């Protein structure tokens, strides 16, 4: 299988400073990749470049085998989903947060409702279906954002610190659910996390950024053991 994402020589300059500098990276179909590094190392910026939300100052991007320039076709964006740490939710009900995006994608009323409920159940949110999404706790919001992103069946899922608001005991089952869905749907993942445990649980390969450059890359399971500088960052 080919790469779903490939970037070469990505450079992003802001306020006269290169916040990404010469990044080469690829993500294979169905691969789960971690992105780690200290605060300000450029992780979120790189995620935005890869998710076609930000045009780099320099560099080439290829998405699903298609070279991407400044204007990004909507069809390409629709094959991806992004969840940030504090995801914006719709003001309506919890159910509507999944139902409406499915309707917009063209599903009929009954089918959209049925699928939306199934996704809520999968993430343990069915009891909240009729409640206002704004009334959810931080951890519940995080689960809803994941359910909503996956309901759209993206080929690539980008997650930026998705478990930050999720308590430690809820994390393991949530990660297990996520792993199962990614496997079933054959979805590729790019995960940013400060918790190496999350990277070990969910990714096969990790890229470590420091000051906008790749410090190290390799199998998540062995990278820390084999790279003293990575071990320093993730003791
Ligand atoms: N629009 C901008 N203008 C100026 N500087 C920016 C801009 N966007 C990001 N930066 C800077 O670029 C650097 C990288 O930011 P980025 O958010 O990508 O880092 P990060 O690795 O995701 O950090 P964290 O772990 O803290 O979330 C930071 O120093 C940030 O302040």
From TrEMBL:
Report which superkingdom the organism of origin falls in.
Bacteria
Q: Where in the cell is it found?
A: Cell membrane
Pfam families per UniProt: ABC_tran
Q: Note the PROSITE patterns from the entry.
A: ABC_TRANSPORTER_1, ABC_TRANSPORTER_2
Query: Which family would the database say this protein is a member of?
Result: Belongs to the ABC transporter superfamily.
Q: Which residues form a coiled coil?
A: none
What is the membrane topology listed in the Swiss-Prot or TrEMBL record? Answer: Peripheral membrane protein
Where it mainly occurs, coarsely classed, is membrane
Q: Which organism is it from?
A: Brockia lithotrophica
- The segment(s) forming the ABC transporter domain are 5-233
Q: Is Zinc included in the keywords of this UniProt record?
A: no
Task: List the PANTHER family hit by this protein, alphabetically.
Answer: ABC TRANSPORTER ATP-BINDING PROTEIN, ABC TRANSPORTER ATP-BINDING PROTEIN NATA
Q: What is this protein called?
A: Tungstate transport system ATP-binding protein
Specify whether Membrane is a keyword of the entry. Answer: no
Keyword terms: ATP-binding, Nucleotide-binding, Transport
Its Gene Ontology cellular component terms are: plasma membrane
Molecular function GO terms recorded: ATP binding; ATP hydrolysis activity; transmembrane transporter activity
């Amino acid at each position: 299988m080919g790469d779903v994402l490939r970037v070469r020589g990505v450079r992003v300059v802001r306020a006269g400073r290169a916040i990404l500098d010469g990044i080469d990276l690829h993500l294979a179909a169905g691969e789960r990749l971690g992105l780690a590094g200290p605060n300000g190392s450029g992780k979120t910026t790189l995620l935005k470049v890869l998710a076609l939300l930000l045009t780099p100052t320099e560099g080439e991007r290829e998405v699903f085998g298609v070279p991407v320039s400044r204007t990004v076709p909507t069809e390409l964006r629709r094959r991806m989903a992004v969840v940030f740490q504090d995801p914006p939710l719709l003001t309506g009900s919890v159910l509507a947060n999944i139902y409406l995006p499915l309707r917009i994608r063209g599903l009929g009323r009954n089918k959209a409702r049925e699928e939306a409920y199934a996704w809520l159940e999968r993430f343990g949110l069915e009891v909240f279906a009729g409640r206002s999404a704004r009334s959810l706790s931080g951890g519940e919001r995080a689960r809803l954002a994941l359910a909503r992103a996956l309901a759209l069946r993206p080929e690539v899922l980008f997650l930026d610190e998705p478990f930050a608001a999720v308590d430690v005991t809820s994390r393991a089952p949530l990660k297990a659910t996520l792993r199962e869905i990614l496997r079933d749907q054959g979805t590729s993942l790019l995960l940013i996390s400060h918790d190496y445990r999350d990277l070990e649980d969910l990714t096969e390969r990790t890229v470590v950024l420091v000051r906008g450059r790749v410090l190290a890359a390799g199998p998540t399971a062995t990278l820390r053991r084999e790279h003293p500088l990575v071990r320093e960052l993730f003791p």
